[in-house]
Each structure stands twice: as structure tokens, then as C-alpha cells.
Amino acid sequence: MGAEEHCKMASNLRNSSLQKWSIIIFASLLGFTLFILPVIASSIYSFQKPGGKGYSFISYTWLLHQAGFFPSVGTSLKLAVLAGILNISLMVPTMVYLNFTGQKLKPLVDFICILPLVIPVVSLAIGAQNAMPSFLQNTQYELVFFFVIIGLPFTYRTLDTALQAISLKTLVEASRSLGASWIRTIIRVIVPAIRGGITGALFLTFALSIGEYTITSLLHWETFPTWTVVASQQNILGAIALSVFSFVSAIALLATVALFSKKGARQVGVDQ
Amino acid sequence: MNKKDRVSSTLELRGVSRNFGPVTALDGLDLVVAPGELVALLGPSGCGKTTALRIVAGLEVATSGELFVNGERYNEVAANARDMGMVFQSYSLFPNLNVSENIEYGLRARKIGSAQRAKRVAEMLELVALESKAKSFPHQLSGGQQQRVALARALAIEPRVLLLDEPLSALDAQVRSQIRDEIRRIQLELGITTLFVTHDQEEALTISDRVGVMSNGRLEQIDIPDVLYNNPVSTFVANFVGTMNHIPTIASGDTVDIFGKKIRVKNSKGVNGSVSALVRPESIEVTRTSGSGNAKIITRSFLGASSQIICQTAEGAVIQALMPSHESGDLHPGEDVTLNVTLNEVLVSHV
């Protein structure tokens, strides 16, 4: 290779790395202005003393002392966990069945699972509530079923992708021919193989449920989101502290999802 | 575990058929696999061989017909209660379990104690020579290693019958022949009744006790490899097993004329007029002529002990011959030669 070519290659390299860096810098600036700056600003603001002299945790302590803070957080967590578990127990066997048998029903189920995104929330809330038995309508646990419904579009896709990435039919047949029952096959073979997908679906439902406001408010139940609205009307700095708290919790949750699905993928040993 | 400790099973299919809607995938298959025998089902894709194997494994249900293992009717036995070890075409190891855990999977399903499981896993790893990979995960293994683990996993449960569903077709050529020989060694060592499905005639002929050639859901012929090769009962079998020349000629009565020699037609019933005579390359003799012969040499390829000679007849047909290299050394491209067939009877097919 001649010296000239060397020079050319080096300058090409420099150009492409320059391009790469300018994109990175631009994206970082954009992210900083639109995303990080507001968070920093509201965080600083949430630590200010009323009247603007000095900093303290006063807004946060006010938050913790508000009636209904802990109960509403507790309710939301409980309902979200139940919704996640119910959704997974419903959708994993369904999706395995649909994918294993190559069912003609699959497009139909796909369509049904998309419906919650299409139907206006008001119709969904009133309609689905009417379909529930009255003993359920009278408890806050009716929300679990709503949360499962609004999680369906996301659970369907997540699990479907995970199942299509493994050779489901061969794995099931191998397990069956080795003497394993259907239950053992699902628990020992399929669930570990689509672990990442299941964790993803679980956390998506959980996150949707934690943040659900419209249906809960329409049906007059108190969860963390509905409580937030009421509480934030009383104290402006408290409201900001509340939004920072919600935001940080959401980020922590997302980070957990990312961590879990990565760990799952590593365990299954997906070749990249 | 060795041959003496175990009793080999007999596998029998009687009139097994399978329809998928209007399509008949398997059309009345009768087959008996003797204890310790390795029988291959050979045929093009869609001939019903895989369907037959899956019916034996219980992964597919026969539309009609019966299945017996050691004289016991197996039609209604669930797949997980059949005690059949199966090796699949695609890689089928459980991705979340390591090699040892994969091998002991069937033993766990049978509620076998951990000490016995460990012993068995060690035996199996030794059998397939993968002791060093016991703790590896499937994605860390090569294709050949994965299929060896799959074989070990299938054998760990001491199955009554071993089922091989094109286990070599995902592997590259070199590994393929190595694993093929290993399967045969292990099969003979354990004396396990084996049904082997493949579309590769070389694979089938090299390791099987008997080979069944299938076409359109039916068994065309089942015989030891030598008979299948030298004495095919139909033109389909003749074409599918080994290389075959199709020499255009005219049939009259029960003889055909090949290179000026009258040869009796084996399947003479209803054959008349223009036909192709089916002649193996090794049944064609090429000799140099001083004058003009009946063909010209196109190429000669040296293959070691024998050489392949490709000729073109005056009529334009391309003929492949296989001769000992020491007899064909003086044959060069472009030369006029005389072709002869060294056969007393031939199969012919309609053109």
C-alpha cells in the first residue's frame, strides 16, 4: 500500500469519526435540553424552601405526611403486581398454544389484543365493567382486569416475538419425546427459553398499571395517579416533588426491566 | 451399559397411512425393524418418510393402520410415554440448560435419583466423547457437537427405539460423515433398534442394515444396500440410489439395443418404442478405437482408484462411465472411442 493511499484512508477514517462524533454531540445536546434540563430544574425547585430561601427536604416530608400517600402507593403496587401476574398466566399458555399449533386463530387473537388501543377508554371502562360480576365491580380489584386488558397489545407482541425467536416446535417435541409432560415442558423448557420476553411483558403491564389514570378516575377508585392529581392541587412545591418522585421511580423501574431482560438473554445464551 | 444388558425391541408398522386433508402423505406403510437393526427410510422430500417417523414417535397420529413395539399396540400411547429417543434435524438442545442438564432431562422426567442420573450422564458423555463439554451451553458448541449431545440425550433414557430424523443434514460435509460413522458405531455398540430418515442416499447406504426407498407415501423397495444398488426393482429406485445413465434407445419386444448390443429388458411389460435404458457408470466400458467409434470423450476425471469418463455418443447423448484408473489412462478428451455395456439385462423407463 502506498503512502498516498495510507493518507486517504486515514482522512476517510477521520471524516467518518468526525461525523459520528457530531451526531453524538448533537443528540446529547438535544437530550440534555429537552430531557435532563427540565428534570434537574424541577429537582432543584423541589428542594427549595417555600419563599425561595435555601434548600431543604420540606416538600418531600410534606409529601410523605399527606394522608393517602402510602395507601395509594400500596394500592397501585398491589394492583399492578396482580395485573402483571394475571396477564402473564393468561398470555403465556395462549401464545405458546397459538404458536405451537400454527393456529388459524392467531390473527383473530392478535386483533382482539389490539382492540384496547382502538376502543375509547370511556367505552372500555363502562362496557367492561358491565360485563363483570357485581361482587367484583364493588372492589378495587376490578381494576386488575382493566389493567390486564390495556396490557394485552403489548404483552401479545412481546411474547410473540420471543416465541418466534426460538424453535418452539422442535423444543416441545424434543421434550415430549424425552418423556416430559406438557406442564414440565412449559415450565422447564419454554418459560426459560422466552424468559426475556416474559420479563418484558410483565414489566410493561406493571408499568402501564402503575401509571393508569383515566379508567381509575372514571370508576372512582383511588390509586397513586388519581391521588397525585388531588394532592398536587394543594401545594405547588409539593406537586413538583411529587412529579420528581414519580419520574425517578419510573426510571428505576425501566432500568430494572433492562437489567432483567439482559440477564435473561445472557442466561439463554442468545448468539449475537 | 452394553449390548448384553439390554433387550432390543422390534418395531412394526402395519398398513400405516396418514392423510393431511386431501393429501395422502403416507399410504399404507408396512415395515418391520428387527431388534438391533438400523433401517433407513430414504426418499425425496414429501415422500412420507418423515411422517412415518413422526407417527412412530407419537408426534403425529396415523389416519389408519397399526403400530407395534415388541408386539404391543402403540397407537394410543402418548408421545411422552413411548420411550423413544429422537434426534431432530434442526438443533433441538434446550438453550437454557447445559450439556449435562440436557442429557439428564429425560431422566429427571422419569424421576430417577440424582446419583443414578449423574452416573448415566457420565456414561453418555463418554459414549459421544464430550466429557470436556459437560458444563458448556448449547450455543458454545459446534453443530456436530450439538447433534452428538442430542444423540446422548436421546440415548440416556435407554429408549426402546432410536429415531433419527435427518440428524446430519444441518452439518457440513466433513462433520457429517464423521458423525454418521459415530452414530453407526454407537448403534452397533448398544444394539439399539433404529429408524433413520434421510434424503441422502450415501448416508443411507453407508450405515444401514437395510434401506427402504419411499416414493409418494409408499415403500418402493426395502433391501440391504447391495441389493438395492445392484438390483433395483423399479426405475424410481434405480434413479434415486446411485448414479444412473439414461441412454436413449428403442425397445422392441423384450430387448433393447444399446451400442449395437441386444440386451434383455428386465421390466419389459408394456414397454415399446422410444425408451431410456438405465445403466450404471461402472457397467459401461470405454475402449479406444483406431477408426471412428460410437462416441467421443469429453473429459476424464481422475478420482483415485477409478476415473470418471464423460463421453458423447454420435446421437448426442452424454454418457458417464466409471473405470479403473489403470485401464483408462490412455483415454484423452476429443478421442474417438467405442462404448460397450457389460450387462445381461437392464431396466428401461419411458421417455
What can you tell me about this protein's structure?
- The complex is a heterodimer of chains A (272) and B (351).
- Chain A has 272 residues and is mainly α.
- Chain A has one domain: MetI-like (MetI-like fold), CATH 1.10.3720.10.
- Helix content of chain A is 82%, strand content 0%.
- The two termini of chain A are 34 Å apart.
- The relative contact order of chain A is 0.12.
- Chain B has 351 residues and is α+β, with helices and mostly antiparallel strands.
- A six-stranded mixed β-sheet of chain B has the order 6-7-8-3-9-10, sandwiched between helices. A five-stranded mixed beta barrel of chain B has the order 11-12-13-20-14.
- In chain B, a hairpin with a 3-residue loop joins strand 16 and strand 17.
- In chain B, helix 2 packs across helix 3 and helix 4 runs parallel beside helix 5.
Q: Most extensive interface, residues per chain?
A: A-B, 24 and 33 residues
- What is the number of domains of chain A? 1
Largest sheet of chain A: none
Task: Give a count of the beta strands of chain A, DSSP E runs of length 2 or more.
Answer: 0
CATH topology of chain A: MetI-like fold
Radius of gyration of chain B: 24 Å
Q: Multimeric state of these chains? A: heterodimer
How much of the polypeptide of chain B forms β-strand, as a percent range?
35-45%
Outline:
Chain A is mostly helical and 272 residues long.
What's the topology here?
The complex is a heterodimer of chains A (272) and B (351).
Chain A: H1 3-46, H2 58-65, H3 69-101, H4 106-118, H5 121-131, H6 134-137, H7 142-164, H8 168-177, H9 182-193, H10 195-211, H11 214-218, H12 224-232, H13 236-268
Chain B: E1 11-20, E2 23-33, E3 38-42, H1 49-57, E4 64-69, E5 72-73, E6 84-87, H2 99-109, H3 114-127, H4 143-156, E7 161-165, H5 173-190, E8 193-198, H6 201-207, E9 210-215, E10 218-223, H7 225-230, H8 235-240, E11 245-252, E12 255-258, E13 261-265, E14 273-279, E15 284-288, E16 295-302, E17 306-313, E18 318-324, H9 325-328, E19 336-341, E20 345-350
Parallel strand pairs in B: 3-8, 3-9, 6-7, 7-8, 13-20
Antiparallel strand pairs in B: 1-2, 1-4, 4-5, 9-10, 11-12, 11-14, 12-13, 14-20, 15-19, 16-17, 16-19, 17-18
